[in-house]
Design brief:
Number of strands: 11
Helix content: 40-55%
Structural class: alpha+beta
Number of helices: 17
Radius of gyration: 31 Å
Shape: elongated
Order of helices and strands: EHEEEHEEHEEHEHHHHHHHHHHHHEEH
Bound molecules: zinc ion
Strand order of the largest sheet: 1-9-5-6-4-3-2
Distance between the termini: 66 Å
Oligomer: single chain
Strand content: 5-15%
Length: 388
């Protein structure tokens, strides 16, 4: 790989012909059309938060260096930004799109157009330190992973987009990494994470591939459409909405792909599901509200999903003392199930640490988590009862 150092390109040079795509949240071109600011393998623009972008422009006004920037020179003579995309997009948006954001100068907010001529020149004439590299894709990729360590680390899906970049990734990003997509807010009711950091794309891929994302991306890398990915994702979302009326925060980020695969063949009465979900959300004994949805989908069989409230230490000790005193008096085991058995444990007195608390009447049958409904069982019997 060959690298050449350029210290003569200015901010004005880079900003020439700058195009920012609002739909995709990325800077596309600069350097008079010769620079691709966001190649496919790069993350979307994430500096547009009114802090990091402002800091870049304020650094230029103070004549601080912006740090090293890396370009790759392609065989067709075009440059691609390898590192520096966020900084370039920040200053180029400021310079070219007059009303994008303001910076503080001498105690007052200024857009580019309202700055003094001196300040404008300070920005436009700032010289950048740019390394241009030429080499094979694998050399560039390897180097990219090395220098990336210094910046904001790429998340796993961003690295996958880099490894499998091609027409499929490009189309998938337009659909799933685009906050301007009208469906995005609906999707975000069920899918967790920042679409710009590829969280929605990652989820869509996870669902369609049953968790084998890399394999799926490798297979579809050169596809010119994302039909299967998109159809599967929208089918899952539609299914959720056909079963549940509820759209609260507890639903966000659940493993909907797996739940769809397991349960979409079953019929549900939407009214009844809504009634049960509301009841369980209100039930103070249910501590894992996020487990409610799978619990209801599975015909309310797997109580473990709900993490029903357990007895506290004080209640357990009180029940233990009461049971043990009575057991000793009658020369029986303090585990009521051992006491009625026929083996050696019939008269065994367990230590508190050898026992667990059990709901006499199960939570699912209306049993409370209080002293009246608490009995201590030896661990073996408690486990056996829990499995029934
Ligand atoms: Zn027992």
């Amino acid at each position: 790989m060959k690298t050449t150092l350029h210290i003569d390109w200015t901010v004005a040079d880079i900003c020439k012909g700058f195009i920012y795509d609002k739909n995709e949240n990325k800077g596309l071109f600069g350097l008079n059309g010769k620079l691709i600011i966001q190649p496919e393998f790069q993350r979307n623009y994430i500096y547009g938060d009114g802090k990091k972008d402002v800091a870049v422009v304020e650094s230029l006004l103070k004549e601080y260096p912006l740090g090293l920037i890396y370009f790759v020179k392609n065989t067709d003579g075009m440059y691609e930004v390898l590192d520096g995309q966020q900084r370039i997009t920040s200053f180029a948006r400021f310079v070219n799109n007059s009303w994008t954001f303001a910076v503080m100068r001498k105690g007052k907010p200024h857009y580019f157009a309202s700055l003094d001529e001196d300040d404008k020149r300070r920005i436009l004439d700032a010289k950048l330190t740019i390394y241009v590299c030429e080499g094979s894709p694998s050399e560039i990729q390897e180097w990219f992973e090395t220098i990336n360590i210094a910046g904001v680390p790429l998340v796993k899906q961003e690295l996958r987009n880099a490894s499998y970049h091609g027409p499929f990734v490009t189309k998938a990003r337009v659909m799933f990494a685009n906050t301007g997509n009208a469906k995005m807010s609906r999707w975000q009711t069920y899918v967790k994470g920042d679409p710009k950091r590829q969280a929605v794309l990652e989820t869509a891929l996870d669902w369609v591939s049953d968790g084998n994302i890399d394999d799926y991306m490798a297979k579809h890398r050169y596809d010119d459409n994302i039909d299967e990915l998109q159809n599967h994702f929208e089918t899952v979302i539609d299914w959720i909405e056909s079963v549940f009326d509820y759209t609260g925060a507890e639903m966000c980020g659940l493993p909907w792909g797996r739940l769809y695969a397991e349960y979409h063949g079953q019929a549900y009465a939407k009214d009844e599901v809504a009634r049960r979900v509301a009841e369980l959300l209100d039930d103070t004994q249910v501590t894992n509200k996020r487990g409610i949805f799978e619990y209801v989908l599975g015909d309310e069989k797997n109580t473990a999903l709900l993490s029903v409230r357990v007895f506290d230490e004080k209640t357990k000790r009180a029940a233990y003392n009461k049971q043990t005193a009575a057991a000793k008096k009658h020369r029986k085991s303090n585990c009521p199930l051992c006491a009625v058995g026929n083996d050696n444990n019939r008269e065994r007195i367990y230590k508190l640490s050898e026992m667990d608390a059990d709901h006499v009447t199960a939570w699912s049958k209306g049993g409370a988590t209080d002293m009246k409904n608490c009995q201590m069982l030896c661990k073996t019997h408690n486990r056996a009862k829990g499995n029934r």
